[in-house]
Q: What sequence folds into this?
């Protein structure tokens, strides 16, 4: 029977795609295809990951067979033998999911070593020290990575040995000492696991491969997946690859390279090299690598080939590449390539440069920018003037963008706890590891003592768009004593420092920050492309002229949601509002409203003035009334005095307004139905403001009035009548030919279902996805925090439905509503407000269902513009 193939040699895998091969596997196949020299090997596909779990975390027999057949193929090509006592084949076992995923199992190198093969290796290379060193590393990695046991004790054995002999470098340890270390490592293994270190390479391989699949489900990987919207179902692939030895001596070495500068985007190779070392030394930040000029000086021919190959790869992928390489006895091997992670600023520059170099077109450039981290470009940086006058206390590598100021925190848990308590912190570590992710998220910035541009801290920080300075060797971090020593000064958790991710400088104290310029340079250029290609308009949610101004600078094309309740909460207004709520009669209520109206009107006037030609959509009062009422005794007394009521009467009224479930109670348009005078006052303020501004500027304002929480047509008609009566009369008296629009939010499932009827009355719809999500799910956003984590943990939900639209459920209602609404009124203007309006993945959906605009908070506007353009480029609408 022809069996399905689950294991592919690199040269047979070209074109199978990263879904099946994972990112690393796809890269290895691609490099083989374009003729870049890489060590032989094969990929076990991502499909096996699911099979592994289905078989009770075991590799099915037919897959084990395919694996060993693939090993035979490597043996043939290399002339080496797996487990052989002559010319032994050693391999690395490398995980590789579709998207690069810190948290997955680390790579195991030198697999296949045992007493016999290590002797053969020593003999054939004539380098016993190298053989013993490889064996030592392998036992350590196998114990730590495949078996998941802490490496602390084994590291200590080496550290003690070095100390006892006064060695500074690992390379000073002698062959005999390494031999002894191997014996002790093995004894330690036996003591820990109650069995001998596996000497059979086949057994070693299967344990290691299984460990990779197991790591797909470890807590660190799960946290990372959540943060980055990576579905659990994807699974990881495993790559098994013949070793290239960078630790064979002075004509060997290892390094990492970016084809362009990942911090600034500058078109110049940015690389590091570590002579006589294996890859893990660099990646783990154990030794800080040297500048690539070291390779140029030692082996100019290898360096030339290195530069040429990088150019070939960059031209092939038409994007900045992040590569690993190893030189074995003067022969250059590449081990990995991928599109390099970069700071948002570098991403911009690289995209524009690639267009200028003719490698990509404008549309591709737009799609190259990561919308999720795009808002990082709007981050303030340190004030340049202040920086000039301030001397840094230390300098490291500029590894992650932006500027961060905060007190020193020494552990991830501490950073998280202090952030929760409202403090700003900088996470300071000797080096970071995947366990530190929560702390990195919580911190304003990260500072590490060790590690280069591809150390864990640097890679993760760039991915998060977090400010990071790494490899700052002048800062001696003592995590036990909880101190950082720089020169002769000692800093503690009480001290505030500032780290500049753009320069690598570290300063004492906090430094003033300034806003970036959004019209100039690469940003302006990219945004002009973005605006050319998108179909969705982008509006903003803004209640104040300040927000509106900011949003306009960010490119907002109108206000999609002005929440008027915020306008009632101001100190000078809430008192009138409270009087209005406590009123017993319509007259009393109208008198209180009359106090509020001029204030509302002037708010609207300034919003109209700021927005100029763009429309402003005002939503009528929405929250439950009791939210406005005071709880404090003093305030209650003051209110009683002003309204000529007794304190008890006020308290009774407050009690009366209490609702068991306010979010589903007396709020939204229910307020307009019960207290039409509120709606009248608001309409009057909106229209009078529009009339005044129209007269003042000579341009007719076109107000949009939005009714919240509508359930059905009759209800909307009732409220609309109130609005139109007031508005028409005011406009008639003004003598202006002013238009206005009345529409509704769709935020209750019933309204979505009855959209065909509601559209008879509504000129526009706006999906309020916060309420629509709560009502569709049947739980409130405010309470969801208590149980959603369990839903993520058990993979019932994979992302927060309040941040990213639940396309399956809520999205179905939206799709239906759009269809029904437009069937009644083909030119129905439809948008979305609510948090998902600024979320790239949700925006793609809104583009696809044919909305006219999205509205989001001012800070998200550029992200939304970009995401809208990317959606339009990837999924063109039928015109
Ligand atoms: P990661 O995804 O954490 O970078 P990798 O699988 O790329 O893990 O490997 C970690 C380090 O080991 C890298 O420096 C890599 O170049 C090196 N490495 C992996 N496989 C081999 C190999 N077959 N020969 C030499 N070095 C290797
Ligand atoms: Mg790698
Ligand atoms: Mg709502």
A:
């Amino acid at each position: 029977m022809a069996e399905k193939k689950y294991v592919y040699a690199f040269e047979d895998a070209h074109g199978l795609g990263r879904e099946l091969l994972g990112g690393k596997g796809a890269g290895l196949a691609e490099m083989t295809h374009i003729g870049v020299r890489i060590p032989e090997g094969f990929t076990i596909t991502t499909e096996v990951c699911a099979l592994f779990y289905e078989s009770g975390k075991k590799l099915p027999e037919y897959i084990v067979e395919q694996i060993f057949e693939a090993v035979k193929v490597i043996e043939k090509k290399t002339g080496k033998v797996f487990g052989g006592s002559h010319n032994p084949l050693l391999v690395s076992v490398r995980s590789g999911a579709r998207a690069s995923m810190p948290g997955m199992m680390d790579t195991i190198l030198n697999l296949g070593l045992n007493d016999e093969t290590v002797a053969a290796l020593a003999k054939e290379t004539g380098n016993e020290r190298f053989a013993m060193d490889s064996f030592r590393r392998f036992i350590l990695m196998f114990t730590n990575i495949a078996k998941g046991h802490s490496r602390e004790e084994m590291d200590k054995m080496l550290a003690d040995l070095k100390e006892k002999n006064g060695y500074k470098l690992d390379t000073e340890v002698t062959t005999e000492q390494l031999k002894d270390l191997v014996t002790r490592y093995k004894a330690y293994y036996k003591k820990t696991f109650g069995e001998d270190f596996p000497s059979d390479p086949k057994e070693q391989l299967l344990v290691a491969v299984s460990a990779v699949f197991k790591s797909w489900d470890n807590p660190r990987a799960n946290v990372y997946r959540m943060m980055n919207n990576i579905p659990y179902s994807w699974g990881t692939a495993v790559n098994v690859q013949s070793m290239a030895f960078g630790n064979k001596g002075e004509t060997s070495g290892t390094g990492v390279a970016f084809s362009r500068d990942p911090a600034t985007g500058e078109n110049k190779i940015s690389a590091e090299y570590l002579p006589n070392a294996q890859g893990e030394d660099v990646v783990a930040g154990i030794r800080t690598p040297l500048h690539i000029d070291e390779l140029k000086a030692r082996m100019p021919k290898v360096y030339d080939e290195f530069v040429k190959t990088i150019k070939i790869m960059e031209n092939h992928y038409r994007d900045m590449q992040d590569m690993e390489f190893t030189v074995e006895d003067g022969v250059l091997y590449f081990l990995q390539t991928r599109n390099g992670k970069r700071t948002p600023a570098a991403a911009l520059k690289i995209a524009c440069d690639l267009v200028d170099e003719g490698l990509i077109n404008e549309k591709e450039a737009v799609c190259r920018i990561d919308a999720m981290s795009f808002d990082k470009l709007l981050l303030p940086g340190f004030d340049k003037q202040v920086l000039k006058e301030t001397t840094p206390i230390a300098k490291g590598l500029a590894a992650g963008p932006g500027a961060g100021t905060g007190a020193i925190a020494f552990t991830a848990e501490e950073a998280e706890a202090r952030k929760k308590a409202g403090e700003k912190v900088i996470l300071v570590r000797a080096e970071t590891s995947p366990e530190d992710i929560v702390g990195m998220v919580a911190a304003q910035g990260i500072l590490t003592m060790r590690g280069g541009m591809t150390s864990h801290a640097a890679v993760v920080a760039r991915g998060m768009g977090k400010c990071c300075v790494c490899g700052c060797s002048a800062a001696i971090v003592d995590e036990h004593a909880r101190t950082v020593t720089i020169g002769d000064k000692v800093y503690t958790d009480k001290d505030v420092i500032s780290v500049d991710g753009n320069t690598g400088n570290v300063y004492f104290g906090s430094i003033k920050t300034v806003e970036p310029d959004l019209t100039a340079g690469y940003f302006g250029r990219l945004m002009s492309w973005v605006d050319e290609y998108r179909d969705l308009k982008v509006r903003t949610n803004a209640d104040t002229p300040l927000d509106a101004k900011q949003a306009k600078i960010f490119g907002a094309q109108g206000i999609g949601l002005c929440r008027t309740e915020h306008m009632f909460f101001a100190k000078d207004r809430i008192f009138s509002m409270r009087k209005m709520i406590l009123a017993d009669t319509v007259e009393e209520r109208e008198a209180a409203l009359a106090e509020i109206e001029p204030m509302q009107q002037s708010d609207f006037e300034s919003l109209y003035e700021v927005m100029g030609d763009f429309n402003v959509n005002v939503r009528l009062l929405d929250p439950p009334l009791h939210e406005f009422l005071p709880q404090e005794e003093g305030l209650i007394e003051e209110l009683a005095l002003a309204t000529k009521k007794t304190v008890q009467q006020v308290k009774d009224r407050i009690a009366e307004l209490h609702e068991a479930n306010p979010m589903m109670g007396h709020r939204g348009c229910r307020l307009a139905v019960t207290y039409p005078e509120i709606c009248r006052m608001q309409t009057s303020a909106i229209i009078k403001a529009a009339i005044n501004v129209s007269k003042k500027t000579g341009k007719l304002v076109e107000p949009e009035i939005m009714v919240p929480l509508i359930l059905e047509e009759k209800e909307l008609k009732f409220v609309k009548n109130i609005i139109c009566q007031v508005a028409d009369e005011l406009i008639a008296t003004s003598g202006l030919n002013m238009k206005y629009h009345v529409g509704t939010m769709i935020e209750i499932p019933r309204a979505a279902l009855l959209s065909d009827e509601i559209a008879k009355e509504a000129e526009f719809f706006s999906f309020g996805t916060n309420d629509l999500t709560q009502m569709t799910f049947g739980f409130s956003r405010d309470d969801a925090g208590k149980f959603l984590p369990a839903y993520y943990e058990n993979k019932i939900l994979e992302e927060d439905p309040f941040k990213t639209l639940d396309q399956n459920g809520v999205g179905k209602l939206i799709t239906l509503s759009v269809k029904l609404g437009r069937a009644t009124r083909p030119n129905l203007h439809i948008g979305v407000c609510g948090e998902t309006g600024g979320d790239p993945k949700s925006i793609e959906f809104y583009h696809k269902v044919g909305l006219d605009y999205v509205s989001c908070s001012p800070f998200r506007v550029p992200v939304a513009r970009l995401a809208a353009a990317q959606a339009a480029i990837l999924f063109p609408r039928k015109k």
In short: Residues 586-611 form the longest helix (26 residues). The radius of gyration is 32 Å. The chain has 35 helices and 33 strands. The CA atoms of residues 75 and 613 lie 72 Å apart.
